[in-house]
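Hey team,

Filing this mostly as a record. A colleague (T.K.) asked me to run one chain through the structure pipeline before their review meeting, and I want the input and output archived in the tracker in case anyone asks later how it was produced. No errors, nothing strange. Just documentation.

Input sequence:
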Amino acid sequence: MAEQVSPLLIKRYASRRLYNTETSDYVTLEDIAGFIREGREVQIVDLKSGDDLTRQYLLQIIAEHESRGENVLPINVLSDLVRSYMVPGGGVMPQFLQSSFDMLRESQSKMMENMTSMNPMAQMPGFEAMKSQQEAFLKAMTGGFGTGWPGAGEARDGEASDGEEDLSAIKRQLAELQDKLSKMK
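Output structure:
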């Protein structure tokens, strides 16, 4: 059975600074968003009271990304979320969202398995590199909820962002594979 990794514990001090207990340094909301994109669970607690503040900070991360124009959630979804808060007991929205994200993760995993098992190109040299690029691309587009979305990882000082480099590498590898396939005909 797989070992369950404990969440990264972040403590909020009275000064509202956030402290990473694993690395013994202060972190920002963007750092926390990066941990989550990498697949790490986080738990944010108030140092003095011990209250769990995780939900509050995750919502703040989403709000900041939305306010910067990184619109992932359409207006109608946001409206439905607001309506779900008005329904006594929260309605069915929380269960629906959880089920939807579970199905998304499961289908992403199955898609990667199927691509590997059914692909006759799996024996070709360089296939593993292409597979890892595809996995990174799919994770960024569906699982990361941030790394592959418009505006995320924007280039700094004229340099290409990691996402753009990954996409360029994928395009280059796809072109190489198409060239190899056309020569096989």
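Quick notes for T.K.: Confidence is low (pLDDT under 50) at residues 145-160. The first helix runs from residue 29 to 37.
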